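Standup, Tuesday
Yesterday: got the pipeline producing structure tokens again.
Today: sanity-check two examples.
Blockers: none.

Example 1:
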Amino acid sequence: MAIFKHLFLVLSLVPLVLSYPFSPPTCYSKVLSMARDLTQRAADLKRGHETSYCMAHMPDLYLDVHNACVMHKMRTYISLVEGLRERRCAYTREVMKLGYTLRQLFIFMSEKCHGDLVFTIYDCAVLERYPGY
């Protein structure tokens, strides 16, 4: 009877093990997904009902992790989001989360993944022209 219990346990765990992703996310994949998420989140905040009036003067945020100018763009945007403290919508959860996650991405790119990332272009004007995602 104990053999059947162990066999059942093993057979029930095999699909779980096989469905689990084999490789953990790399620095590059983590940075790429965070950048896409932040670009979309910033666009949503500019269109959002609660936040559109105070985010209207903010520049569009487009984060291309292959562009060397992205670090300067993130520093500038972080300071702009932190400067929103005088306005009412700066204290909404969505705006605070945008600033916090943007700061996380900046630290992640500059410290954690410093040697793993390679910037292939250096064109700051591309980041100003929001191509959309």
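Example 2:
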Amino acid sequence: MSGGGTETFVGYEAATSGGDKKRDSLGTTGSPAHLIIKDLGEIHSRLLDHRPVIQGETRYFVKEFEEKRGLREMRVLENLKNMIRETNEHAIPKCRETMQDNLDQVLQRFVCFSCESF
């Protein structure tokens, strides 16, 4: 029976020294209270602090916008290049030819009209 009393006494010492240890170590880094507070801070940060998520989404949006804008501008420039080439190859020669034909007709009429008036 004396062994049982010793076990109880040792358990009592452990309980009282553990209680004293909790009171002494409340402000230290490894204490359970500190770990709980740290966990609560992390939970609060993940649930209520949206800054990192918003910053990431903003960076992604800007990147996508710039890429799409760049692609859109490239398409616009390519279309302009095609229009200029088509104008130089087809429209300008056709306009010159039409203008030359009409100018020749006007000059002939002018020459004939001026000949008749004299």
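Quick observation on example 2: The two ends are 155 Å apart (CA to CA). Residues 11 and 50 are 48 Å apart (CA to CA).
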